[in-house]
């Protein structure tokens, strides 16, 4: 064979293509040069090397009908028995829907789904719980601890896709829970469990079974170090609902959010309390984020944040003390440090509050996180209250964004925030001027409007003295 022929053969080899974005390369690489995904560059068989295209006309299962004649009864959501989960899903799980629940290790995904499976089994539905990470005995111990035992809840520990589909065929369940999708592998696909090809094959097979049987399926998914769902991006495109289960391992509070939902909203948040006895929904979690101090304490101010469409009352605490080091400390817990630095700079420049030589410690109560700008005003009032050693009046709540010019900007959802504060017994509120246009103040609440920080401090009664 001549050298020219060898070169022609090498050029005729099919290129390598990324299964995620379609980027091509002349040789195999471990990481895609376009989307930067790992393990997605595979050999492309070319237009003639793969399976033949479908040319024959297949018979239809049912004739096409006008869309107005399609019945929606089979697509109505069925409640799971966990109100906080139903809130996020949009009323419950739709038959044939595939839900992907992702979260960090130890956040409580398996505990939550085991409780959901037990509640569904108590209503008379047959539930198949497949675990690929733990043995059946380990899951049985957890079920006994959280009182999730029921004869209609069937348990299997399997890691082979064909065996899992065999269990589905034999049991014919009304709900399938798979923990987790990264631990199941197919013998027909190369690669280890959790790989790109394996996860795609497992998800596609389970989705096909769910649609053909009208079987609701809940998949547990792992996450990467940055918090995104592990595996190929197509996994999130294939499933119907993608939920993120979040929570600090040092706190009992857990939050469930939907980042994709074909059957409901994506701006709802479910709150849960994780304890040794299991996981319990929190229909009213605001009490977790408010301290139980009997008397007003300097350096505390309450605000109301919006988690999706849900208002949550959160207490912000600040401690301002003289610094013993040339560079004063700025320590935060539950508050963005850059946001704190900006608010302190505005206080010093616009109000003359001397904070450059003071250590400032800011924290939230109960492990809550205040990440939206609506908490700026409460942060500023708490810092001024601690600096002047003057407690804010009892029953005061502050909502507003602080601008660099010292102005108080309006925020979204002021009416819902004030209604939540009034429900909890707060009687005074400091809000940005103009935020109540067309909105009636709650009964029994005095609303004080402030256009800038100076007016807000005076309305709150923080007693800031510019001479200090």
UniProtKB/TrEMBL annotation:
The keyword Zinc-finger applies. The keyword Metal-binding applies. Keywords: ATP-binding, DNA damage, DNA repair, DNA-binding, Hydrolase, Metal-binding, Nucleotide-binding, Stress response, Zinc, Zinc-finger. Residues 359-468 are annotated as: Lon-protease-like. Belongs to the RecA family. RadA subfamily. This is DNA repair protein RadA. InterPro entries: AAA+_ATPase, DNA_repair_RadA, P-loop_NTPase, RecA_ATP-bd, Ribosomal_Su5_D2-typ_SF, Ribsml_uS5_D2-typ_fold_subgr, Rubredoxin_2. Residues 74-223 form the RecA family profile domain. DNA-dependent ATPase involved in processing of recombination intermediates, plays a role in repairing DNA breaks. Stimulates the branch migration of RecA-mediated strand transfer reactions, allowing the 3' invading strand to extend heteroduplex DNA faster. Binds ssDNA in the presence of ADP but not other nucleotides, has ATPase activity that is stimulated by ssDNA and various branched DNA structures, but inhibited by SSB. Does not have RecA's homology-searching function. Pfam families: AAA_25 (PF13481), Zn_ribbon_LapB (PF18073). It comes from Cellulomonas alba. It comes from the Bacteria. The gene is radA. A motif (RadA KNRFG motif) lies at residues 260-264. The middle region has homology to RecA with ATPase motifs including the RadA KNRFG motif, while the C-terminus is homologous to Lon protease. Transmembrane segments: none annotated. Coiled coil: none annotated. ATP binds at residues 103-110.
């Amino acid at each position: 064979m001549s050298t020219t022929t060898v070169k022609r053969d090498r050029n005729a080899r099919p290129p390598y293509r990324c299964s995620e974005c379609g980027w091509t390369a002349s040789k195999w690489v471990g990481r895609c040069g376009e989307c930067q995904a790992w393990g997605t560059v595979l050999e492309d068989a070319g237009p003639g090397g793969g399976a033949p295209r479908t040319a024959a006309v297949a018979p239809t299962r049912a004739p096409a009908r006008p869309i107005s004649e399609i019945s929606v009864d089979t697509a109505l959501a069925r409640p799971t028995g966990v109100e906080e989960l139903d809130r996020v899903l949009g009323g419950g799980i739709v038959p044939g829907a595939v839900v992907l629940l992702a979260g960090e290790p130890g956040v409580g995904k398996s505990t939550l789904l085991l409780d959901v499976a037990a509640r569904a089994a108590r209503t008379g539905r047959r539930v198949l719980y497949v675990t690929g990470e733990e043995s059946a005995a380990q899951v049985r111990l957890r079920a006994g601890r959280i009182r999730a035992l029921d004869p209609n809840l069937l348990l299997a520990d399997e890691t082979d896709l064909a065996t899992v589909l065999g269990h589905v065929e034999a049991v014919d369940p009304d709900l399938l829970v798979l923990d987790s999708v990264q631990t199941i592998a197919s013998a027909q696909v190369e690669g280890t469990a959790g790989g790109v090809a394996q996860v795609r094959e497992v998800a596609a097979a389970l989705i096909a079974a769910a649609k053909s049987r009208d079987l609701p399926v809940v998949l547990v998914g792992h996450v990467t170090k940055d918090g995104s769902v592990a595996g190929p991006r197509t996994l999130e495109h294939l499933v119907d609902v993608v939920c993120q289960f979040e929570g600090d391992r040092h706190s009992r509070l857990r939050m469930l959010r939907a980042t994709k939902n074909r059957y409901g909203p994506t701006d709802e948040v479910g709150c849960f309390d994780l304890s040794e006895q299991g996981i319990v929904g929190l229909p009213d979690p605001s009490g977790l984020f408010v301290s139980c101090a009997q008397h007003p304490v300097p350096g505390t101010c309450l605000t109301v944040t919006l988690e999706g469409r849900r208002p949550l009352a959160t207490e912000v605490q600040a401690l301002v003390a003289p610094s013993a080091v040339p560079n004063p400390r700025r320590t935060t817990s539950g508050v963005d440090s850059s946001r704190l630095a900006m608010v302190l700079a505005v206080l010093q420049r616009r109000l003359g509050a001397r904070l450059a030589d003071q250590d400032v410690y800011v924290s939230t109560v109960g492990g809550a996180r205040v990440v939206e700008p609506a908490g700026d005003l409460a942060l500023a009032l708490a810092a001024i209250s601690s600096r002047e050693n003057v407690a804010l009046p009892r029953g005061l709540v502050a909502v507003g964004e602080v601008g660099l010019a010292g102005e108080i900007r309006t925020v979204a959802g002021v009416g819902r925030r004030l209604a939540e504060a009034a429900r909890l017994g707060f009687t005074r509120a400091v809000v940005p001027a103009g935020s109540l246009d067309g909105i009636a103040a709650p009964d029994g609440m005095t609303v004080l409007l402030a256009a800038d920080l100076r007016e807000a401090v005076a309305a709150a009664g923080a007693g800031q003295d510019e001479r200090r």
